[in-house]
């Protein structure tokens, strides 16, 4: 049995697992991210977990890292990962020296796309796009059964570029990205702005009742009860995302579009809103060519994808 250790590294914590090549997750654990000492801290914590579960380092063929931000998968350098404090950081070189294992690195959203592809049971699906809707927005593309990372690994940064909205500027320095409006951050701003400016609305009454700013989880009952005011606010925030998805459909015609991340905890009602908005922005002849779904793996997708990426690069699948 071939085993891969995977590390899905975030600014707060790292999700870690050991996978076998039959997709079985043999071990799973979390490590708190120590920004001042990231890799050594990971090594210490992983040592402890392997020892506890009587697993030897010699059993691990390689390590797959799923990483946030911009990275060059050819040189093994993280160009920019602000929440990790990394700029032009040679992650592959540093990790290989520390772990004494072959290291594979992949953007976390690309890893999630690969994870969904590996986990998908429909063998007729050969192309998909994944959107991660969290604090920010990322993405990944599978084309003809292959991950598409672009010339230097930057493909799939769906949250940035273009001219999709003009309400909120983006932290990347551009003004019209979809991320600041269609992300969890942007949607939360919109629902609280509505609650403040329209105190007699459903959202206004809810915030008065709760006596604290609303989170997305707070509005789920309103959505489930088909509250039209709440739906209208979400439509406003999700319109840029839907326009982006529609553009992507016309560009690459994916068979499957998967939505992941914290925003999707709003459930089938969210999916219905996005599907309706995407249909408005695409010709009816296209509707049967793609399916919109909420991720089945959710926050485990990055770990599955990092494992698959390592196995494939080692020619073990």
Q: What are its keywords?
A:
317 residues; alpha/beta; Nucleotidyltransferase, domain 5; 5-stranded mixed sheet
Question: How would you concisely characterize the structure shown here?
Answer:
Keywords: Kinase, Transferase. 38% of the residues lie in helices and 23% in strands.
Our estimate of the beta-strand percent is 15-25%
Which CATH class of the largest domain applies here? Alpha Beta
Number of helices: 10
* H-E order: EEEHEEEEHEHEEEHHHHHEHEH
User: Structural class of the helices, strands and pairings?
Assistant: alpha/beta
- Tally of structural domains: 2
CATH H-level superfamily of the largest domain: ATPase, nucleotide binding domain
Low-confidence segments: none
Q: Describe the largest sheet.
A: 5 strands, mixed
Number of strands: 13
CATH topology of the largest domain: Nucleotidyltransferase, domain 5
The CATH architecture of the largest domain is: 2-Layer Sandwich
- Please state the average pLDDT score: 94
């Amino acid at each position: 049995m071939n085993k891969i250790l995977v590390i899905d590294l975030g600014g707060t914590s790292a999700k870690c697992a050991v996978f076998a090549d039959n997709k079985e997750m043999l071990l799973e654990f979390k490590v708190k991210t120590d920004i001042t000492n990231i890799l050594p801290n990971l090594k210490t914590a992983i040592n402890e977990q392997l020892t506890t579960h009587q697993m030897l380092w010699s059993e691990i063929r390689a390590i797959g890292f799923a990483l946030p931000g911009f990275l060059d998968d050819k040189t093994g350098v993280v160009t920019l990962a602000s929440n990790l404090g990394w700029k032009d950081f040679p992650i592959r070189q540093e990790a290989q020296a520390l772990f004494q294992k072959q290291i594979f690195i992949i953007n976390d959203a690309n890893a999630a796309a690969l994870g969904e592809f590996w986990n998908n049971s429909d063998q007729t699906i050969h192309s998909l796009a994944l959107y991660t809707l969290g604090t920010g927005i990322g993405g990944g593309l599978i084309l003809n059964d292959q991950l598409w990372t672009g010339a230097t690994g930057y493909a799939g940064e769906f949250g940035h570029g273009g001219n999709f909205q003009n309400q909120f500027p983006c932290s990347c320095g551009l003004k019209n990205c979809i991320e600041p409006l269609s992300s969890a951050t942007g949607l939360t701003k919109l629902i609280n702005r509505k609650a403040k400016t329209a105190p007699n609305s459903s959202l206004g009454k809810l915030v008065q009742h709760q006596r604290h700013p609303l989170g997305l989880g707070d509005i789920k009952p309103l959505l489930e009860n088909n509250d039209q005011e709440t739906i209208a606010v979400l439509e406003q925030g999700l319109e840029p995302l839907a326009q982006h998805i529609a553009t992507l459909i016309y560009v690459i015609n994916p068979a499957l579009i998967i939505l992941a991340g914290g925003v999707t905890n709003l459930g089938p009602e969210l999916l219905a809103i996005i599907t309706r908005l995407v249909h408005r922005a695409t010709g009816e002849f296209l509707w049967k060519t793609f399916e919109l779904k909420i991720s089945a793996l959710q926050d485990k997708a990055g770990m599955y994808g990092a494992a698959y990426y390592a196995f494939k690069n080692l020619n073990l699948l």
